[in-house]
Structure formats: C-alpha cells, structure tokens
Write a structure and sequence with these properties.
Blueprint lengths: L2 H9 L3 H21 L5 H23 L1 H14 L1 H8 L1 H30 L2 H26 L6 H16 L1 H15 L9 H23 L5 H29 L5 H39 L2
Length: about 300
C-alpha cells in the first residue's frame, strides 16, 4: 500500500467532499450540543470527524488558497464593478451602507413578528434598537442617493449632526435590553459551535469598525465618518449580546450576582462609549457648521 499516496488523498480530498464534510460536521455538532449528548460514543465519533474536517480545511486554506489568490484578485480587478469596489472607498462605503440598512430592516421585521406572536417585550426592545439603527442608515443612504459625497461639506455636517442626535437614543433601547436581561432572564443563546462563530464575528466587526474610523478620519467627508461611527456603535452593542450568550453557554458555575454585575458594567461601558461618540460628533458638527456658515 502506498501510504504517501493515501495520506495525500486524505489531506487533499476533492472540494465537493470537503463541503459535504463541513456541513455534516457542523450539523452533527449542533445536534449533539442541543441534545446534551456531549459524553456519548456518537459524540466522540463526531468530534473525530470534526477534527479531521478542520484539519483538511486548514491544509486547503494554507496550501491551495494562496496559489489562487493572485488569480482571483486579477479577475476582480479586471471586472469593472469589482475594480471600482476595490479602489473606490466612497463606493465601497455606499455598498456597505445599503447592505447594513437591508439587514437592519430585516431584523426589525423579524423582531416585530416575534413580538406579535410570542408577546415578549424582549423582541420589542430589539425591534426598537434595530429601528433606530435603520433610521440613521436610511438618512445616510438618502443623502448619498441625492448628493455626491465630498461636494458639500456643510450639508454633510448637518446630516452627521442629525444622525448623532439619533444615536443618543440608542441608549434607551440598550438600557431596556440590560433591564430585560437582569430582571426577566432574557438574552441571546446560540446553540453549539454557533457561539464561537458569533464570537469571531463580533470581535472581527468591532476591530474592523475601529480600523475603519482610523482609516477614514483624514477624508473630508463627515457622512463617511458618520457611517463608520454608526458601525462601531452597533459592533459595541453586539459585545453585550455576546456576553449574555457566553453566560448562557458557559456561566453555569458563575453566581448569578456576578453575572449581573458584569452585565451592568458592560452595559454601562457601552452606553458611555456610544454617548461619547455621539457628543463628540455633535460638538464637531456644530463647530464645523458655524465655521462653514459664518467663518468662525
């Protein structure tokens, strides 16, 4: 038996087989965690399969993807729309703004529907939060639809100040969410490995939002800066959601009083950060509007 050839086949299976393994492993892990079968024989078989799948995917990403990176990148730049997305920061921001608005509206609809069917005010609190975020993003979308970014700084500062005032109201829904978590045992609960996916996404979105604010701070476009501030605020709020999910998944040995204290401190910290961002934007916008109008 050619062990080298066999090992190569095991480490480099066809792409279609890898996709099947990923789906089967993810579904099996979720089923095991949901059903509480973590210490059964089938669970250990699934663990081995999941480990093998992770190894295969890692090897594929480390050896195959770098070779394809140049080809994929060249194809993107050869496409007019792809080239514009990769090279035009304004266009990239507009695309992200449209996508985030669509997601916010979808979340509003889902949570209103859940509130209507389940009569839980937790979903109403979430609907209010996503509605506030949607209003801000809608105002920004309407601006970029009617005006070219960077052509009228005064108008952009006015729109930025309106969004900053609206951003202050996020603290109302945030306070409501914290109270629901503390006194009605509400919160997020992601099954199985989903919590790790959400943790990775949350930390990525927060880091990305911070880097985007730093990157775009030198651009003379208050609207683009406001888009990044709104994104950072949303990412910070998602940290509270992740914390409640972590407690639900791993906080069984932690006293409820300590969990509540951490939730209060996290909520207070996020609230302070959102207020600080809002006030800084309001002060900056007011100052720039006066300077544009009266040359102060």
């Amino acid at each position: 038996m050619d062990w080298k050839k066999l090992g190569k086949k095991l480490l480099f299976p066809p792409v279609w087989l890898m996709l099947i393994l990923v789906v089967i492993s993810a579904a099996a892990l979720i089923l095991i965690f949901v059903k509480g079968l973590e210490k059964t024989i089938p669970a250990y078989i699934v663990y081995v399969l999941a480990f093998y799948t992770l190894t295969v995917v890692t090897v594929f990403c480390a050896t195959v993807l770098p070779k394809q990176y140049g080809t994929i990148k060249r194809k993107i730049y050869d496409n007019p729309l792809g080239n514009r997305y990769m090279t035009d920061k304004v266009f990239r921001t507009e695309v992200a703004l449209y996508l985030s608005l669509s997601v916010n509206l979808l979340y509003v609809g889902i949570n209103v529907w859940n509130w209507h069917n389940l009569r839980s005010y937790w979903f109403m609190v979430l609907a209010v939060y996503y509605a506030i975020m949607a209003v801000m993003r809608f105002l920004l979308v309407r601006y970029v639809q009617r005006n070219e970014i960077g052509t009228c700084v005064l108008r952009e500062w006015k729109r930025a100040r309106i969004c900053a005032y609206i951003l202050l109201t996020v603290n109302l829904s945030l306070s409501g969410a914290v109270l629901m978590i503390l006194y009605h045992s509400k919160g997020y609960d992601y099954p199985g490995v989903m919590i790790y996916v959400m943790a990775l996404y949350t930390f990525y979105s927060t880091t990305h939002a911070i880097l985007e604010i730093v990157k775009y701070r030198t651009m003379a476009s208050p609207v683009m800066s406001t888009v990044k501030i709104v994104s950072l605020s949303a990412a910070l709020v998602s940290m509270l959601n992740l914390e409640t999910a972590m407690f639900a998944q791993f906080g069984g040995d932690m006293p409820q009083q300590e969990q509540n204290l951490m939730i209060i401190l996290t909520g207070a910290g996020i609230s302070a950060a959102v207020v600080t961002l809002s006030v800084m934007l309001i002060v900056k916008a007011t100052k720039e509007i006066r300077r544009e109008k009266y040359g102060e």
